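Moderator note: this is an archived Q&A kept for reference. The question asked for a predicted structure of one protein chain; the sequence and the answer are reproduced below.
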Amino acid sequence: MKTAYYLLKVNSKVDRFQAEDVFKMATVNGAKAYDAESFGTIKQGNKADLVFIKKDQLIPNIDDSNFSTIVHNLLFETKEDQIRHVMIDGKWVMFDRKLLTIDEKVIDENYKNIIDKVYSLKS
């Protein structure tokens, strides 16, 4: 969304699109483009792909529609470590920053083995 926002700012009048427009493009309007009216909004019966962000770590919002909004700050100031939980298709894949669908230790071990092999090939 951040990249789309930048591209829109560079390729159109600077005041034509706001962060809220980009957010709608990625949610409700994206769903409409695919004739998937059950996507893009949070309501009973819809598929749930949600990201939960720890809000007390967000940059304070200057609520001025000409400068900054909550959505603007969400797009530009949210950092990876603020993401607390992720739900895809109604199932938790990350909760309290712990991945639930893969074993991180196995991935770390596989990575270390690959690195070891790469460095042993250099000699």
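Archived answer notes: The two ends are 44 Å apart (CA to CA).
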